[in-house]
Amino acid sequence: MDNVDAQVLKSASDWLHDGRRAVLGTIVRTWGSAPRPVGALVAIRDDGLIAGSVSGGCIEDDLVERVRSRALAARAPERVTYGVTAEEAFRFGLPCGGTIELVLEPLSAESQVDELLERVAGGAQTRRTLDLRSGRVTLEEGAGTDVLQVDDQRLVSVHGPRWRLLVIGAGQMTHYVAQMALALDYQVTICDPREEYADSWVVPGTHLVRTMPDDTVIDLRPDRNTAVIALTHDPKLDDLALIEALKSQAFYVGAIGSKKNQAARKERLKEFGVTEAQMERLHGPIGLKNGARTPPEIAVSILAEMTATKYGYRIPTPEAIGERAAAVEAGCAVA
C-alpha cells in the first residue's frame, strides 16, 4: 500500500503525462500548532484539482486560486508563508496561531517525479535536491537518517521509507502487521528460518530473510528509526531476536504472549545477560490493551503502540487508569 505522499507524487506524474501543468508544494517549516508535519506534500493541477493537503482548510483554497491564475510558481520555485498574523491564522484555519512555510515548484519532465516514484516503489530511501533558483532536481540514495533541509539555495527532501520494522515470524498475524506497516511508511523485513512459514509468505513490498533471528538483528543494526517485534510464540526464535534488539537503539521492541509468558521470558533473558534497564524497554504483552481478539485487530493495537512510542507519547495502562479513578473517587486527587 502507498503512503499519502507517494499518492500525491503519483497524481502529479499522471497529470504531467496528460500534458497538464502542475505545481508541487512541500511544507518546509512550521511554527506553533500546524495541521501537517514538515515534508508533507500537496500537488495542484492547472485547473485547480488537488492531491494531498497542507492544512485541510483555506490554505488549499488560496493555493488553488493562485496556482490556477499563475500567480504562484508559474516559472520557478517560490516560497510562501501562511499564518504569520493572528488574522491570517484565523482566515486560513490554522489552530492556535500556527504558521506554515511552503516551497512551491512548477513540475516538468526535469523534475524527475517518475524516477523518484520508481526508487520509492523499490523500497529505497531517496534524497531529492531542488535548486530553488534554477528548478533543477537531482536524486541521490538516502542514508536512512536524512531529514528535510532548506536554505536560500536548495530544498533537500526525503522520500521513501524512513522507518524500519523487523518482524520475527511469518505467520498469519505478521501478514496484517506487515500490510499496515507498509501503509505507515515502514520498510518491512520479515525473518523466519522455518520453511513451513517462509515458503508461504506473500506480502508484496516486504523483504523476507530466512536467517536466524539474532544474526538478522545484528546485520540490521537497529537505530532509533527501527522497531523489532517477535511474533512466533517460539522462545527459541523470539528470545534470540529480543536479546540483540534490547541491546540496540531500536525505538520499539515488543513480543507477543500473555503476562505469564512475559514473566517467564524476562527470566530467560536475564540468564543471557539482558540488564534490568534493557528489560524495561520490552513491550509485552505487545500492543495497546483495546480488547483486540482477531489477528487484524491485534495488528492494529501493535501498530498503534508503535506509533505512540515513536512520537514519545506514553499511554496509561488500564491499571494506572483504574488507580487514578479510584483516587479521584476517594477525593485523593484532582480529575
Textual characterization of the structure:
The protein has 335 residues and is an alpha/beta fold. The protein has 12 helices and 15 strands. The protein has helices spanning 4-17, 58-68, 86-91, 113-121, 172-183, 195-198, 213-220, 235-245, 259-271, 276-279, 295-310, 318-329; strands spanning 22-31, 41-45, 50-52, 78-82, 99-106, 126-131, 137-141, 149-150, 154-159, 163-168, 186-191, 207-209, 226-230, 252-255, 282-283. The strands form 3 sheets. It has a 6-stranded parallel beta sheet, sandwiched between helices. Helix 7 (213-220) packs parallel to helix 8 (235-245). 35% of the residues are buried.
Present the secondary structure layout.
Blueprint: H1 4-17, E1 22-31, E2 41-45, E3 50-52, H2 58-68, E4 78-82, H3 86-91, E5 99-106, H4 113-121, E6 126-131, E7 137-141, E8 149-150, E9 154-159, E10 163-168, H5 172-183, E11 186-191, H6 195-198, E12 207-209, H7 213-220, E13 226-230, H8 235-245, E14 252-255, H9 259-271, H10 276-279, E15 282-283, H11 295-310, H12 318-329
Parallel strand pairs: 10-11, 10-13, 11-12, 13-14, 14-15
Antiparallel strand pairs: 1-2, 1-5, 2-3, 4-5, 6-7, 6-9, 8-9
Helix pairs in contact: 1-4, 5-11, 7-8
Quick structural overview:
With 335 residues, the protein is of the alpha/beta class. The protein has helices spanning 4-17, 58-68, 86-91, 113-121, 172-183, 195-198, 213-220, 235-245, 259-271, 276-279, 295-310, 318-329; strands at residues 22-31, 41-45, 50-52, 78-82, 99-106, 126-131, 137-141, 149-150, 154-159, 163-168, 186-191, 207-209, 226-230, 252-255, 282-283.
